[in-house]
Amino acid sequence: MTVRIGVIGTGMIGRDHTRRIQQVLAGAEVVALSDYNPDAARAVQADLAPAAQVYEKGEDLIAAPEVDAILVCSTGATHEPYVLAAIAAGKPVFCEKPLATTADGAKRIVDAEAAFGRRLVQVGFMRRYDAGYVALKAAVDSQIGAPIMVHAAHRNPTVPEHYLTPMAIHDTLIHEIDVLRWLLNDDYVSARVLFPRKAARSHGKLRDPQVVVLETAKGVLIDVEIFVNCHYGYDIQCEIVGEDGIAKLPEPMAIQMRLDAKLQNPILTDWKDRFVDSYDVELNDFIKAAAQGTAAGPSSWDGYVAAITSDACVAAQEADGEAVAISLPARPALYN
Ligand SMILES: NC(=O)c1ccc[n+]([C@@H]2O[C@H](COP(=O)([O-])OP(=O)(O)OC[C@H]3O[C@@H](n4cnc5c(N)ncnc54)[C@H](O)[C@@H]3O)[C@@H](O)[C@H]2O)c1
Ligand SMILES: O[C@H]1[C@H](O)[C@@H](O)[C@H](O)[C@@H](O)[C@H]1O
User: Fold this and answer.
1) Is 165 found in the same domain as 114?
2) Are residues 318 and 217 in the same domain?
């Protein structure tokens, strides 16, 4: 079966996912496109999916009989209504992170999917599909003993002026919030945020860098440095300290050079390159499950937990280093 996919939001990642489906992956084709800016949808149609129908409204694309499954790749604040409409239509939906910009919004999605009674939603937490993180999880599960501490860093070379202090949580830390919970098979109980002096390259409305300290139910202490004006490159670090040893996320493959009297390893500068393979694997998982009328991978429950944790971290940014408690409601049976 070829899964007929409609893509809502044809900006940077919507275009890239369309390219994947049309040119890299098997088992699916993009038959419909929609964007708030119709010219963006038409440009993607012209470049990548000439047979696709362009819809002015995302809601009409979701309802279209030729669309079996939906990708929501629009701006974060617009995800919730599209995901709810896809669930109401009984169609599998892949939603880019964040699932919703508030915990209440994510809960509405969880409630709708649980009431529907079958998984339909996959959230775009692609790091769970990254070969390095998969190997790290195997080491944590079976080699280094029970985890005690995690040291992580999420560094971007630069961010635009519209990137404000809470975005370091909602837009950036959200990846660690999901992947560390998955790596440790644990949930968070509190968050603290500490700010060193502001880096000189941090623009006026942004406090950068910051350190988020998360504590888990099993007593693991996690520190994540978020530094989005680090200048030198796009750098993701993760080290897990266990009872018997330490496991570290591998560096991306790079040619080592002996050149000009230096031993050199290049560092990536663009997030699109760092996780390029994992985007392929996550969408492949979506296509396989959608062909069976369901969804796999990171669930709307995971998206909801990430939203609750993000809200706590944003509150912690204003709490002068004090801990903000995180408590989760009961998990519906659908997500056990
Ligand atoms: N998983 C990842 O690593 C990753 C990476 C980048 C972006 N993202 C997520 O993907 C989403 C899109 O990011 P992007 O970088 O492609 O942004 P972008 O700004 O390049 O594209 C967003 C597109 O959504 C369209 N849009 C806005 N409101 C809309 C609406 N109501 N209906 C339909 N279309 C609408 C815009 O016109 C634009 O074309 C964001 O939620 C972002 O967090 C995830
Ligand atoms: O939307 C991007 C993307 O999610 C990247 O993976 C992350 O490193 C950036 O901080 C964020 O702005």
Assistant:
1) no
2) yes
